[in-house]
Amino acid sequence: MKSKIYFHQLVCRLIEFMKIDHMLQRIIWPLCGTLLFESLYLISLSIAPFSKYRLIFFAVLGLIVGDRAKKKNESNINKKRISELRNDFPYFAENLALCITAGLSPAFAVSAILESDLSNPKEKILFTELNRLLSEINEGKSVTQALDGLAKRIDLPEIYRFVDVMIVTMERGTPLAEILRQQAFDLREDQRRAFLDLGSKAEVKMMVPVVFLILPVSILFALWPSLYQLNQMSSF
What is the DSSP code (8-state) at residue 122? Predict the structure, then answer.
């Protein structure tokens, strides 16, 4: 029990450190961009005289590029986070429905899912958030308040919907197991449709090199002998 409480406290401290780290990145990325472009300017001094206007221009350009690189990096991290959450949450919903059907309370069900997972839950964003949820419950928050905080932190429509249905069901006192099974089935259907959409987009992207590269080259190879013969005949 002490090890669980220690791990929950460690998760909370890690989240606070990530907030501080985010503030540092807003400074570090533009600074690195400025240093990079100023280094390029110093290298260019071997072929061009010194100019304070060019020095300022390279500094401003480095700030802009560094800020854009930071935003691009954050966008890629956010996309990876959303993809991981959407892949893991249906698994969690199905296991939560099974645990609730077996008679466990929501808090004990979440704890059982974290303990029974064969992979490393510390490396998964969803399981980190679930550990934070358990720590909030242990600190005295109600299950509905902790679930609402989980949905706000994750901030995905399907998870909002799942948590809202779960909270309403718990407040009304209706059986939770059947509702959770239906919600888990809906999440799996949403995931299947997302995979189908991803596959259709991949097919369209694969058509681009075929239409604009392979097909023109094939037509050129097919017509080249005839064009060459016509050119030879016209020269006579």
Answer: G
Q: Measuring CA to CA, which residue among 21, 125, 122 is closest to residue 78?
A: 125
Residue 41 to residue 59: CA distance in whole angstroms: 9
Residue 62: Cβ-neighbour burial (10 angstroms; 0-12, 13-18, 19+): buried
Give the tokens for residue 50: 């010194």
* Two tokens, residue 83: 């993809």
What is d(CA 52, CA 73) in angstroms, rounded to the nearest whole number? 31
Q: How far, in Å, CA of 86 to CA of 187, rounded? A: 9
pLDDT at 212 over 70: yes
Q: 73-83 pLDDT, tens per residue?
A: 778 888 888 88
Q: What's the pLDDT score for residue 198?
A: 76
89 within 8 A of 159, measured Cβ to Cβ: yes
What count of other Cβ atoms lies within 10 Å of the Cβ of residue 135? 19
Q: Contact, 181 vs 175, CB < 8 A? A: no
Phi, then psi, of 94 in degrees rounded to 5: -65, -45
Per-residue pLDDT, 61: 82
Residue with tokens 């893991």: 88
The residue among 61 and 236 whose pLDDT is bigger is 61
d(CA 17, CA 20): 5
